[in-house]
Structures are given as structure tokens and as C-alpha cells.
Design goal:
47 residues, mainly alpha
Length: 47
């Protein structure tokens, strides 16, 4: 039984690392897109 626990612990660590990576990518993308829209709105009066 302990062997299974070790396998699941490794899977949970991998999943946690993957979720953190995806979360950071989403955060950066939102900042870039939001910042880009703000700059466009400031540069182009009709946008």
C-alpha cells in the first residue's frame, strides 16, 4: 500500500507544478493583453 501512496504523491506534485505554471501563463497573458488594450486606447483616440 505505501508504494501506491508514493506514486500518488508524485502525481500530485506534478499536477500542482503544472497548475502553477498554467496559472502564471494566464496571469501574464491577461496583463499583456490588458496593457496592450490600454496603450492602444491611449494612442488611438477612436479605439
Amino acid at each position: 500500500m505505501p508504494e501506491n501512496d508514493d506514486e500518488y504523491a508524485e502525481l500530485n506534485e506534478n499536477r500542482s507544478r503544472r497548475m502553477k505554471t498554467i496559472a502564471w501563463i494566464v496571469i501574464v497573458a491577461l496583463i499583456l493583453v490588458g496593457g496592450g488594450a490600454t496603450v492602444l486606447a491611449l494612442l488611438v483616440p477612436g479605439a
